[in-house]
Structure formats: C-alpha cells, structure tokens
Amino acid sequence: MIQGISGSRKAYGATMRGLCYLSLAIVAFLTFFMLIYVLYRGVGYITPELLLTKPSTLRNTIGILPNILNTLYVVVATLIIVLPIGVGAAIYLTEYARNQKLVELIEFAAETLSGIPSIIYGLVGMLVFCQLMSLQTSLLAGSLTLVIMNLPTIMRTTQESLKTVPQSYREGAFALGAGKWRVIRTVVLPTCINGIITGCILSIGRILSESAALLFTAGFAHNLNGFIKGMGSAGATLTVALYVYASERGEFNVAFAIASILMVLTVIINLLTMYMGHLMRRRIGE
Amino acid sequence: MGISGFLATKGYASNPRRLMEDLIHLVFLILGLVAVGSVLVITIYLIISGLPAIVEIGPIEFLFGTRWASTAKEPEFGILPFILTSIYGTGGAILIGVPIGFFCAVYLARIAPKKLREVMELCIGVLAGIPSVVYGLVGMTILVPGIRMLFNVPDGASLMAAIIVLTVMILPSVINVSLSALDAVPREYEEASLALGATDIETYFRVTVPAAKSGIFTAIVLGIGRAIGEAMAIMMVAGNVANMPSLFTSVRFLTTAIASEMSYSSGLQREALFSIALVLFLFIMIINAILNMLKKGNQKI
Question: Which of residues 50 through 79 in chain A touch B, CB cutoff 8 A?
C-alpha cells in the first residue's frame, strides 16, 4: 500500500507533520518557559514580610498586602455587580425574549463589548465613572469598569448552560401550575449553576490579569483599608503594582515575586475551568 | 387615569400574580439592555471627547502628520507613526503567530492523542491567562537585553521585541478558534478523502482545513483584534519613543501613546489622546464588522 505513494507525496506528508510537531513544541516550550522562568526568578523573594506588610519609606521595605487586599476587593465588588446583570441578561435572552431583532441587537452589543481593548475601557471608565459620576479615582470606579468588561463573559457562559437545560424540565414545572418566574428560580437556574460558576471563574481570571483598564480608574496607592473605605479610595491591584514596580521603579525582584503569585493563580484558575468543563460535559452526556 | 385605573385595564387588579410576572419580565429586559447601553455610552463618549482635537488640529494633519511632539513649545500632533507602528506590529505578530497557531491547531484537532490534547489545552489556557504585565516583565528582562546583544543595537526596547511579545499573546486565541473550527468539520469528508487513497496528512490539510477555512479566518481576525488592542505588555518592551516604525528602533503604538501620556496630560494634548482612542476604536469596529461578516458566512454553510 505504502509503495503506491510517490516520493513528493511522502515529502509533503513528512514536511507537514514536521511543521505540526515544531509548532506544538514551540507552544509547549513557551508555556513551560514562562512558568519556570517567572517562578525561578520570583519565588525566592516571596517572604512573609512582603506578603504581610505595606510599603514603608521609613524602613525602606516593600510589602504587597495592600495590593493583595485591593485585588480581592475588586474581584468581590465586580462579581457582586456583574453577576445579577449578566445572569439576568442571559435569562432574558433565552427565557423571555420573543423579538428576534432585539435578541440579535443584545448579542451584537455583547460581542462588541468583548472586542473592545481594555485601554479604551480604562479611558471611558475614567470619563464616566471617575469624572461624570464623580467617584474619583477609586476601586469602585475600577470595579464598575471591570463590570462592563466582564459582562459578555458572564452572559455567554450563562446563556450556553441555559440552553442545555432540557425543555421538558420547564414544561413539567409549567404543567404543575408554576408561573414563569417561579420556574426560572426553582428549576432553570439551579440546573445551570455550573455554567454560572464557570463564568465566575473566567471573570476572576480576567480581573486578576487586568491592568490597563485599572490604571486610570483605580489609580495607584498602597494604603491598607477595609472593604468599604477601600472601595472609595484609590488603590493598586497586584498587576498594576507589578507594572509600577517593574517599569517605573526598577524593583524587579518584587515584580517577579508578584508575577509568581499571579502565575500560580492563573494555573489554578485554568485547572478549575477544566474541572468545571468536565462536570458540565458529564451532565450533558447523561 | 390613576394607578388603579391602569391596573384595572391590564387586568392586574384582579390578578396580582400577573402584575408580578410582568414586572419581573421588565426587570430582565432592562438587565438585557445594559450591554446595549454600554456600547452606546462608550461610542458616544469616545466621539464627543475625541472629535474636538481632530477638528482643531485638522484631520489630515492629525492622521498623516509624521511628528508627535505634544509637550513642545509649538506642539505637533501627527499620529501616523502610531498608526503605522500598530499596523506593522500587528502584521508582524500575525505573520509569525498564525502559522504556528495553525499547525498546532491541526495537530491537536486531528493527530494528537486525547491525553496530549488535554495537556496542551491546559497549556494554551495558561498562556491565555497570563497577565499582560507578566509578559511585559519577561520581555523586559529577557527579550530586550537579548535583542541588544544578538543584533548589536544600542537599545533592545524596540518594535522587534513588541512583535515577539504580541506573537506569544495572540497564539492562544488563534489556536482555540481554529481548533473549534476544525473540530466542527464532519468526519465523513475525511473518510471520503481517505477512501479515495489520500494519506491522512493530505486529508487533513487538503480536505479538513479548506472545510474549516472561514473559522480559521475568524481566528486570524480575532488575533488582529487582540494584537492591536494590547497596551501594557508592549508598553514595557517597545521603548515608547514616537519614532516612525522600523524593526530596531524604539516605537509607540496607538495604545501605548494613550497610556504613556494620559497621567500627566492636559488641554489639547489630553484631547488629542482621546482622538487617538477614537482612531483605535474605529480600527476595532472595522475588525468587529469583518468578524460579523465571517460569522454570517459560517451560518450560511
């Protein structure tokens, strides 16, 4: 059989196969190189002092506790606001909307939002939230900007999992006399909870890695604040702190320490997403 | 007509549950419209804040002026260097990144064993999730000195460094979108080709790939969108001087031009930065329109 294939065809096959292996090797190398290099340069500088203090000019030390807390605050605030909006929008699209034109308009808007670069979100967030709504440069303004950025993610993942809820579940509940809202609340939403959780995990990943949109809206400060006071004042998240330490102050050791923390979180988030994907596929497979 | 009259005409007074249901329907409608409202607000704000400077400077001078000296005594606001840098940088990243992503996607979609595919999907997810400032940091400490030594140039912070960083950053989206396009090609196409005596590799590249053509185009356009919108990573490696682009000089992109001056800008300079954002937004909108056309094309098939 093999003898029937001409030399040039064999060469074509070998070249293409070779290019495939080469590309795969490049991608795998890049991933492991990034992981190992960042951890190698950074892990040694993650000390209790770095993690548990704020920067002190008196003692000339750098601590990233304020940045860790700011990141946490921004993640929590953004999710609290974006979840009801995103899940609600997805419910409207799959459960309520009758007008196909309106559905297309909303889906088009969501797609447009997901294509807009974060620097533009940063600018418009600064104009609308910081200046027009006079929130000043604050974590709240930053979170509101991230809400708009993450809205398409939550909408899409929720919508996808709403579509997998069998129509018969809804019909069964309607037949028992339940109203539409009751059906959504007690039957539809609990069935698609995995999709919503996946959306949250993806959003947390995006919030953790966001910097351009936060630079002009949440600003740069290292004060230790509680949640409420923190939301009202400026503060740098981990990524923004990394940027400033690396490119404005030349503190590469601190920058790599922050980068290692971010890398570990990125890997954890991806493992979680993968696990959620398995869970959902198993349910559809049933 | 008072509230009670309104309630009566809709039949709500006798049926409070219906009132409740309709109210909830309204709430969900409003939540659904948040996305539409956001797009409108972003568009309107960019136009309102971006147009004045373009009018004041003159559209031709603004778009095709080759000198940007925003803080000089007699300031000049020509953004052609930024536009060209963004186009060259994106073009370079696409030129290197798309072939790598394409071959990787074909391999993962058809040739790779299931376990390897799972591991690689995790790798690609991690690559996509790494914050752009981390790419910038690694670029600053490895690429920039590397380019300086390798090519013997005075400063490694250059368009070249930015292209390499962008290449790595667009790889995950190029691979993921191509992969789902290839996955969607029916096995029957390949079986027919194999039955006619084509080898497996010939089948993948001459039957499966053409069948997934528009999905792969989508991946490329998406990669262009990612590259043109990236700011922080290239800000850290491209040097940030407003030169006309060439491979080994320090350059500014549309995105980094905004980011690097925003914090201390005022007056016409600040307005000009918003105009740059408007130009960037136009580029993104064109890319979105192309994506939509591709999507419609996909649905027809």
Answer: none
User: Chain B residues with CB inside 8 Å of A111's CB?
Assistant: 288, 291-292
DSSP per position, B185-226: S-HHHHHHHHHTT--HHHHIIIIIHHHTHHHHHHHHHHHHHH
Q: Tokens standing for B134?
A: 């981390």
Taking contacts as CB-CB distances below 8 angstroms, the residues of chain A near B288 are 111-112, 115
What is the per-residue pLDDT for A50?
85
Nearest to A96 among B25, B125, B255 (CB): B25
Q: Domain boundaries in chain B?
A: 3-57, 68-300
Cα-to-chain-centroid distance, residue A61: 31
Whether residue B171 and residue A242 make contact (CB cut-off 8 A), yes or no, is no
Note whether A152 and A269 are same-domain residues: yes
Contacts of A81 in chain B (CB under 8 A): none
* Percent of chain A clearing pLDDT 70 (strictly above): 98
Residue of A nearest to B230 (CA): A117
pLDDT, tens only, B98-149: 999 999 999 999 999 999 999 999 999 999 999 999 999 999 999 999 999 9
Q: Which CATH superfamily is domain B68-300 in?
A: MetI-like (1.10.3720.10)
Cβ distance of B229 and A119 shorter than 8 Å: yes
Specify whether the CB–CB gap between B13 and B4 falls below 8 A. yes
Render pLDDT for B20-36 as a digit per residue (tens, 0 to 9).
888 999 999 999 999 99
pLDDT of B12 strictly over 80: no
Closest alpha carbon to B136 in B17, B263, B289, B256 = B256
Percent of chain B past pLDDT 90, that is, above it, reads 63
Whether residues A99 and A131 share a domain: the answer is yes
Are A68 and A29 part of one and the same domain?
Answer: no
C-alpha count within 13 angstroms, C-beta hemisphere, residue A262: 35
**Encoding tokens for residue B36?**
């539409």
Regarding whether A161 and A90 lie in a shared domain, the answer is yes
Q: Which of A37-41, A107-111, A197-201, B245-249 has the lowest mean pLDDT?
A: B245-249
The reply to whether A261 touches chain B by the CB within 8 Å rule is no
For residues A20 and A65, membership in a common domain is answered with no
Same domain, A139 and A194: yes
Which domain, by its residues, includes A9? 2-45
pLDDT in tens, B241-298: 888 888 888 999 999 999 888 878 778 888 899 999 999 999 999 998 998 888 877 6
Residues A120, A20 within the same domain: no
Q: How far apart are CA B178 and CA B25, in angstroms?
A: 38
Number of domains present in the structure of chain A: 2
Contact B214, B291 (CB under 8 A): no
> Could you tell me if A184 and A75 lie in one domain?
yes
> Measured between CB atoms, does A118 come within 8 Å of chain B?
yes
Q: What is the pLDDT of residues B186-234, one digit of tens each?
A: 999 999 999 998 888 899 999 999 999 989 999 999 999 999 999 999 9
Q: How far is CA A206 from the centre of its chain?
A: 2
Q: Is B255 in contact with A123 (Cβ distance < 8 A)?
A: no
Select from A27, A152, A267 the Cβ nearest to the Cβ of B100.
Answer: A27
